[in-house]
């Protein structure tokens, strides 16, 4: 039996159990107790006699030279044996060491991973929507399963960590009305040096007209107050890239093709280019009525280039005047086996390749009985364009209750390939992506679902849906027209739980869907906030201060504020939301990087009061920013003229001068106030916003806006509505433009 001490190590020696009385005859203190007694030694006399006799025998048998050679041989053999033993011992040692280190690294906790903290206790609050959870001092919890609670407050050193697994197989969903983190409390899902591998989802539920409203934060939120820590870090993905080949509507360069018509008597023929899927020729040959039409078809097929795709479908009837020479041509060049027996009003369809033989031919025939063919005679074959796009050519013919129909389809199958600028091997099947519009209308942005694509390179993906619009992938005359392609899916998700339609006092006169989503608000003097590669969807509310991500009057959040690790958001995906994307309000030194804002209401990346400084927006993508109701400059015409609660008297706002649809008209809007606005109004600043230099503005791309990519304005109206100026506060100040 192998014994170990309390720390799992082998002891230096085994102590006798009952003192000296049980020592074996071979026991020496400090050495391992032998497993068996040593063999009895020979007597000295017999040993000496044996040695003398052996030496004498050796001396008698060999000369002195031979004896010397024998001694050298024995010496070399001993050295060789010593070396072999040393090598075997060393090898065994290193093998054992490797095994031990491998086992240790497999099971040892990673100090960079918050869910491997040995102090953590597994926590399973269950499914109880009435439970109000307070995680306080001494509560060090690891969430290990799905849970539903009313609310969670993390404070006084309490810690909540989402459990993870090394293979990414864990899937945890936490439903709650809100999470409030303050006074030393912390919420961790992954870490910068140990990113979350599994799927973690926080669902913020509740309606605007039910439940408790918390001071400052309201409802349906994750809130961070002074002393709070929020660290969310999902798996890294390339956030967005560019097309390098144009993505055509339907997925084919020349578009898809669909044709159907009744009573086109004879053989209807389409010739398709295999390299591009382009329809090259469209012909009809009335081989039922005219022999010359049969001869014309024979000549038509004779001159076709090898490799061309030919699709044929019978309309009505085609056999009466079909000559044997034409039949032979169809057999020889297209590999047909059914054309020889084609009869009156039989439905027949074929798709083949010129000189491709019978293996390239697919054909079908159905008999005409009682004014019907009992279904389609349908022929179909699949091909690849020169760019590797898979497409199908289909021909069909049928009779339905005395009506003859024939038709053709040319369309992509098994997904459409996208060719991209960057390595997107981090994008996985099932992920959702968005391709930006490259037309005048931003509404031509399209969403797609990724399919498995083993044949794709790391610069290609395949999507399930067929594109409805053309998306440019080229640089034309020096102008970069390439569409942006962004990934929306992340493995750490914060989302609002939504109702099926608009309700209550949620501006339902403008929206037919629920706009009361979740929101994340961070307040001043937080301990640490870093968000990376997190997906936020159904976030934001059409109420002031309720945005997907909102840094609210935080002051300096970089080194100037005492943060050794400056605050940032990186690689976020904010989509299908209801009020902005990221709002920086009275906050300085924030880095916003590689973040996508797609399909939201009102200004997407928003610096609120005009006093914000040292904030960096780097390599972000905003698209499909739709009108919202919060500010005059968020609104469209209808909202602008209808929302009159904050104007003076009976004044009716004028969209062109009060609102001007800035959200829709401008991609990037710089506004230099004469004085701070909003909650920063009245602050005495060292520098006036209107005199502050523009700063670095480099390598920005703006397109698909109605009027301009960039607006630089002097300011907005900074006085409340009055008889002298009845317009709403923060509407456009046209006198200053």
UniProtKB/TrEMBL annotation:
<keyword id="KW-0325">Glycoprotein</keyword>
<protein>
    <recommendedName>
        <fullName>hyaluronoglucosaminidase</fullName>
        <ecNumber>3.2.1.35</ecNumber>
    </recommendedName>
</protein>
<feature type="domain" description="G8">
    <location>
        <begin position="121"/>
        <end position="245"/>
    </location>
</feature>
<feature type="transmembrane region" description="Helical">
    <location>
        <begin position="83"/>
        <end position="103"/>
    </location>
</feature>
<feature type="region of interest" description="Disordered">
    <location>
        <begin position="1"/>
        <end position="50"/>
    </location>
</feature>
<keyword id="KW-1133">Transmembrane helix</keyword>
<dbReference type="InterPro" id="IPR055401">
    <property type="entry name" value="CEMIP_beta-hel_dom"/>
</dbReference>
<dbReference type="InterPro" id="IPR019316">
    <property type="entry name" value="G8_domain"/>
</dbReference>
<dbReference type="InterPro" id="IPR039473">
    <property type="entry name" value="TMEM2_PANDER-like"/>
</dbReference>
<dbReference type="Pfam" id="PF15711">
    <property type="entry name" value="ILEI"/>
</dbReference>
<dbReference type="InterPro" id="IPR039477">
    <property type="entry name" value="ILEI/PANDER_dom"/>
</dbReference>
<keyword id="KW-0430">Lectin</keyword>
<keyword id="KW-1003">Cell membrane</keyword>
<dbReference type="Pfam" id="PF24606">
    <property type="entry name" value="CEMIP_beta-hel"/>
</dbReference>
<dbReference type="InterPro" id="IPR011050">
    <property type="entry name" value="Pectin_lyase_fold/virulence"/>
</dbReference>
<dbReference type="GO" id="GO:0030246">
    <property type="term" value="F:carbohydrate binding"/>
</dbReference>
<keyword id="KW-0472">Membrane</keyword>
<dbReference type="GO" id="GO:0004415">
    <property type="term" value="F:hyalurononglucosaminidase activity"/>
</dbReference>
<feature type="compositionally biased region" description="Polar residues">
    <location>
        <begin position="15"/>
        <end position="24"/>
    </location>
</feature>
<dbReference type="Pfam" id="PF10162">
    <property type="entry name" value="G8"/>
</dbReference>
<dbReference type="GO" id="GO:0005886">
    <property type="term" value="C:plasma membrane"/>
</dbReference>
<keyword id="KW-0677">Repeat</keyword>
<dbReference type="InterPro" id="IPR052252">
    <property type="entry name" value="CEMIP/CEMIP2"/>
</dbReference>
<keyword id="KW-0812">Transmembrane</keyword>
